[in-house]
Amino acid sequence: MLIDFKDEQFETKIKNEEVSIVQFSAEWCAPCKALIPVMEKLSDTYKDKASFYYADIENGGINTGSAAGVRGVPTVIVYKKGVEVDRKVGGVAESHMKEFLDKNI
């Protein structure tokens, strides 16, 4: 399940979790919308290994997205205890996203 992300959760959740995956997106972004079902499915696959978040860069995730230097959406960032480990920018196929997660989780 993708958890709806709000900026304040970075301090309360992301910095305290072993592995967090945050999808930075925007409501108007077609590739972002296409990535949502992929991330939902992968969040079930990896539910015991990581928490998955959906952050709208124009709403609840605006400050975190800005602080992370997100310049294009969708951007998926892997955090370990609040520290960025890797990121993938742009819409990608489920198989590519799974490879990316396997490498970083």
Summarize the structure in words.
The protein is α/β, with parallel strands linked by helices and 105 residues long. Helix content is 35%, strand content 26%. The chain has 4 helices and 5 strands. A 5-stranded mixed sheet has the order 1-3-2-4-5, covered by helices on one side. A hairpin with a 2-residue loop joins strand 4 and strand 5. It is globular and about 30 Å long. It starts with a strand and ends with a helix.
Approximately what portion of the residues adopt beta-strand conformation?
25-35%
Topology as a string of helices (H) and strands (E): EHEHEHEEH
Strand order, main sheet: write it out: 1-3-2-4-5
Describe the global form.
globular
Count the helices. How many? 4
Q: Please outline the major beta sheet.
A: 5 strands, mixed
Average pLDDT, rounded to a whole number, is 96
Structure summary, number of beta strands = 5
Backbone structural class: alpha/beta
- What is the CA-based Rg, rounded? 12 Å
Distance between the amino and carboxyl termini: 17 Å
Percent helix, as a range, is: 25-40%
Low-confidence segments? none
Key traits:
105 residues; alpha/beta; 5-stranded mixed beta sheet; 26% strand
Present the secondary structure layout.
Elements: E1 3-4, H1 9-12, E2 20-25, H2 30-45, E3 51-56, H3 62-67, E4 75-80, E5 83-89, H4 94-104
Short description:
Helices cover 35% and strands 26% of the residues.
